[in-house]
Amino acid sequence: MAQLFTRDTQAIFWNNNASAIQRMLDYDFTIDRKTPSVACIVAPTSENKFQKFFWGADEIMVPLFKNTSDAKKAFPTADVLLNFASFRTAYDVTMEALEIGGFKSIMITAEGIPERLARGMNAKARALGVIVIGPATVGAIAPGAFKIANIGGTIENIINSKLHRAGSCGLVTRSGGLFNELSNIIAINADGIAEGVAIGGDRFVGSVFIDNLLRMQDNPEVKYMLLLGEVGGTEEYKVIEAVKSGKITKPIIAWCIGTIAKYYDSGVQFGHAGASANGDQETADAKNKAMSDAGMFVPKSFNDLPSLIAEVYTKLKSEGTIGEIPEPIMNTLPKVRKSKEFICTISDDRGDEATYAGFPISSVATPDTGKGIGDVIALLWFKKQYPKWATQFIETVIKTVADHGPAVSGAHNAKVTARAGKSVVESLVTGLLTIGPRFGGAIDGAAEHFKYADDNKLTPAEFLNHMKKEGIPIPGIGHRIKSLRNPDLRVEGLKKFAKEYFPSTPLLDYALTVEQLTTSKKDNLILNVDGTIGILMVDMWRALGYSEEEINKFISSGTLNAFFIAGRTIGFIGHVLDEKRLEMPMYRHPMDDILYQVDVAEEI
Amino acid sequence: MAQKAIREYDAKSILAKHWGEYFPSFTYAYETIMVENGKALTEAAKTNTWLNEKTLVAKPDMLFGKRGKNGLVLFKDAKPGDVKLAKAASWIDEKSSTKQNVYFSFHGDTPDGEAKTDMLTHFIVEPFTPHEQAEEYYISATCVGDDDMLYMSAEGGMEVEENWDKVTEVAFPITATEKEIEAKIRANIPADVADKDKEGFATFAIGFFRAYRELNFAYLEINPFVMQGNKIELLDMVAKLDDTAGFMMAEKWGDVEYPTSFGMEEKSPEVMAIEEADSKSGASLKLTVLKPEARIWTMVAGGGASVVYADTIADLAGIDDLANYGEYSGGPTTGETQFYAETLFDLMTRTPDTSGKGKVLIIGGAIANFTDVAKTFTGIIYAFEKYAEKLKAANVKIYVRRGGPNYEKGLKDIKEAADRLGLWIDVYGPETHVTDIVRMAVEA
After folding, report:
1. Are A430 and A419 in contact (CB under 8 A)?
2. Which stretches within B281-426 are classed as H helix?
3. Which domain range does residue A363 map to?
4. B2 CB near a chain A CB, below 8 Å?
5. Average pLDDT over residues B119-147
6. I need a labelling partner for A279 at 20 to 30 A (CA). Which of A302, A363, A456, A508 fits?
């Protein structure tokens, strides 16, 4: 893998560090990436399913997961893990990701992971061929393709430092702050960087200078490298060996900071935890001399670094090794942008004509479109185009549940309210407010319990036993007067339609075996209309390819009840209009229909 | 710094606390006590009866070695092994009453290099343990490069540096399993360990190396330990802990202290206050005062940039002019930055300028990744307001260079504030090379 990242690279971001993620997305937008560089976020303590981020002036929703394994399952091609866990948990997060597999690189930002843990983690990653960037790093960048979190700083700085498109320098530093500084120096004195990595300030980091420089040696975009080392450690000597042995042939400009350390004893810690010289060869002076002796370009001091970069760049350019870098077109981030208070994913009234899930209203409204109310429900409730059999089933349900006479509690309420002189909408909602677990709720309940029994492969007898233990009558079973011998024709109609047009009806088939058992106990314990609707809805969604989990969500979120609400609204309005027409007076319940038993309150 | 030296007393206490876990087949009396003066020792004898019953050895416990060669080990009054409690107490009082010279390296018995002079404040007292030279052994462990190293020798109590040829070294990758480690240790027991001790030495070494790893020591040395059958004495120990593991080890390490080394200047209250603030913050605040009377003071953001500024000051002005080293980074709050700046301004304005060139304050930094420059500069401006008169009295010239989020506002604010307060200031952004303000300050 010659290139660390491409324009298609996507990351899983561990920990919802919103400002760093926004920086990545701003970068993506600026360089005109097609996909966001953050595929999803792992936020173990969040209850949310997604978080909004700006994408230019617009907003996008980035999915949130509770753990890395779910995130990876949902986004298998996201092969970078940005581990922003604290030093207490960063080790565990990395080790888990290595177990899960499928990551090409893991960046770890925490500073001060216990050294023994860091060593074990780095060794395991290396054995698995996973590149670890960090710990204690600000990250890495492939300009014009992918940028990790905060590296490069603000968008203004990124553009000033030419980090928005690939240049020709490969940059490797320990320090994250100086990474930015060097990007700026390279932009001013040369043409920017092709790839850059801040390897991290802790004593034990995953990928070291040589790992990154060897990859850059193979990356055709990199024409020369800049290595900024530090006092302490011997990593620079591995680079010297690679230069001497000819493994690295591209020119390297190199400098080790920390030349001051020689003036003080070991009591003064200069810079990072990794920066402490044990022995003469680990001093900055010794390393600078050794790198210079090996033929690398080493300035006299850090202050002379800019002119040396200009010199090497100019030489490579005059030799034709480096050509002109074309400036790509960039998107401009809006100066002011406002987060949206509401999100809408079903309809849109911004264009010429309002749409239902992308379909102009006129394309589904009139009879010649061939679309009915079932299609509209499919679009607005489920954001899908359902096949004819399914939309017709939905319409059948709506029609079936539209009314059930004036005596049921909802209709009665609506009528009483209308007679009190209230408006259509007021009267309607008093009716609707009775819909719930006891009125209309059998649809939800039947779907839930029958599905549970079917999912768990309960025999009808076991199912009955189970419900008995739970202490609830089976929802969807039983009718006041109808029985096997005197069947409910609405149920017969639904069953007939399903048998004829559904691809299959496994839950209905199961429910009918249950009905055989219940009716053998009592004649009127038949599968009633609520039960049939709930059960067939499950069969419809199964046949449409929804997962069991999605169907369970439909049930728990009350979607089935919604069909009843939509249908019965028609009937309630009918009753309200009926009352208006009849001009019936205010209703008062007859006193002889009330059992009064009022005791005098006891004193306590 | 991740690796921190601890006292011999603490090292022994940690091993003693977990002795049964790592050395179940050996006994260790753990008769050891640390005191700061003779009176404390006499007091301790009331509860530690062995101090009265046994003859004693006393020595300073202040992170430096070569105590014998420095004449700082008390083991004889008239003859070796006859030191009683009263003698130990009076010796400790004598040695702690005046500053002592300590040499850190020797050529044979001749001191090499300069002595450090400081007060002795901590002493460790233990029973005198009569034993044969042949019973003394050497063992240590640390991490070199990517590997853990175990060093073992049949020659205990020697100068290791001078006798490296007598030490067997064994390297272990971090991935080595318990089984592999055991086998490798057994296969590498130094040949000249007495035959009767070979099995015991191997068992002890395996336990020692496991303790080193599992208790997160960065360095652990016993030189020497005495092995008499299954009885072990730890005569001299040196240890460093990996303090980044502190959050996992709080229970296992107990109440451990990280003292400054002998001869180092005691941390000033200011430095300790910064350390305290650092430990409570998610950001990083570091300060070392190198030469409080020097003229160039730095307030630099970032671990790498702070080193580059120090390097450049040393190159262009020389280290005699450099007063401090330090850094603030990782997005400190306005309040934290203000506290850091005030501490620095206070230190730099305590003495008047003697160079005649005036003092210099470098407020430097690279181009920040995420630290809000305007926010941190607001903290510096508050500190300016508090210290303006003192800074003017000390004839301080201020050079600023910084980039990063919100840097334009930060630079504009700091310039305005300095002008309003009548402070001398020059302000530069990312178009100026990061360390170029050092050149300007030195050339001015």
Report:
1. no
2. 303-316, 334-348, 373-393, 407-421
3. 347-380
4. yes
5. 93
6. A302
Which element (helix H / strand E) includes A27?
Answer: helix A18-30
Contact criterion met (CB < 8 Å) for B367 and A201 = no
CATH number of the domain bearing residue A82: 3.40.50.261
* A286 and A422 part of one domain: no
**Distance (Å, whole) CA B271 – CA B376:** 20
Minimum distance, in Å, between the CA of residue B420 and any CA atom of chain A? 29
Look at residue A588 and tell me if it is in a domain: no
Query: Which pLDDT tens digit goes with each residue over A412-464?
Result: 999 999 999 999 999 999 999 999 888 887 898 899 999 999 999 999 999 99
- H or E, element range at B302: none
Question: Between chains, do B244 and A112 touch, taking CB under 8 Å as contact?
Answer: yes
Residues A105 and A61 in one domain: yes
* Nearest-by-Cβ selection for A114 from B173, B242, B316: B242
**Per the domain annotation, does B323 fall within a domain?**
yes
CB neighbours of A292 closer than 8 A, spacing ≥ 6? A298
**How close A113 comes to chain B (CA, Å)?**
6
* Residue A204 domain flag: yes
Inside any domain, residue B413: yes
Provide the annotated active-site residues of A.
Answer: 272
Lowest mean pLDDT among A28-42, A106-120, A325-339, A374-388: A325-339
CA distance B208 to B222: 10
Q: How many CB atoms sit inside 10 A of residue A506's CB?
A: 14
- Whether residue B184 is contained in a domain is answered as no
Q: Which of residues 363-422 of B touch A (CB under 8 A)?
A: 365-370, 403-405
Q: Are residues A423 and A519 in the same domain?
A: yes
Per-residue pLDDT at B228 exceeds 90: yes
- Whole-number Å distance between alpha carbons of B310 and B325: 7
Q: Is the domain of A422 the same as that of A563?
A: yes
Chain A residue with CA closest to B214: the answer is A116
Q: How confident is the model at residue A554 (pLDDT cuts 50, 70, 90)?
A: very high
Q: Is ipTM > 0.95 here?
A: no
Computed over every residue of chain B, the mean pLDDT equals 93
Of A65-79, A277-291, B171-185, B289-303, minimum mean pLDDT range: A277-291
Spatial separation of the C-alpha atoms in residues B91 and B67, rounded to whole Å: 15
In 3D space, the residue among A553, A529, A523 whose CA is nearest the CA of residue A451 turns out to be A553
How confident is the prediction for chain A on average, in pLDDT? 93
| B421 domain residue, yes or no | yes
> Could you list the residue range(s) of the whole structural domain that residue B406 is in?
269-443
A56, A158: one domain: yes
Closest to B349 (Cα-Cα) out of B292, B404, B298, B300: B292
Residues of A in contact with B260 (CB under 8 A): 267
- Report whether pLDDT(A130) > 70: yes
Chain A residues with CB inside 8 Å of B218's CB?
Answer: 115
| DSSP assignment of A228-285 | EEESSSSHHHHHHHHHHTTS--S-EEEEEE-GGGGGS-TTS--SSTT----SGGGSHH
Closest approach of A175 to chain B, Cα-based (Å): 5
Is A401 inside a domain boundary? no
Q: What is the CATH number of the domain that holds B418?
A: 3.40.50.261
Total structural domains within chain A: 3
> Is the per-residue pLDDT at A508 higher than 70?
yes
Global pTM exceeds 0.90: no
A373 and A415 both lie in a single domain: no
Say how far apart CA A197 and CA A169 lie, in whole Å: 12
Number of domains comprising chain B: 1
Contact between A127 and B175 using a beta-carbon 8 Å cutoff: yes
Domain-embedded: residue A440: yes
Tokens matching residue B97: 């009453």
Cα torsion A567, A572, A575, A580: sign: negative
Residue A313 has pLDDT above 90, yes or no: yes
Same domain, A210 and A264: yes
